[in-house]
Amino acid sequence: MMKPIHIQVQTRFLPHNSRPANNEFAFAYHIAIENRGMEPVQLLNRFWLITDANGKTTEVSGAGVVGKQPMIGPGETYEYSSGAMLETPVGTMQGHYEMQKADGGLFQAPIQVFSLAVPNLIN
Length: 123
Prior knowledge:
123 residues; 8 strands; 61% strand
């Protein structure tokens, strides 16, 4: 069965916003949320689990994304960019969006684990 919500993630390291000497590594991520279903859905909430290379985890949750709770119609894609700060040059993020269908029903759209890594660090 095809999942109605398809999520793609692109990440990049932000060297000019990072201070490695202070264990501050900045990353940007760009997310595309595609509604492959037959009805409109609204993104209500987000939940992130961010893990650094030391195993330290941070949970981030709240309403919407970048201050919005977008309605995504069938065949439409909503895109946004945001960022995360890690204490190590490598880490991961994963989570889910809480979505609401037109009939008021709620469901979770999972966001698979993706890596945040300083380029050329791992050979």
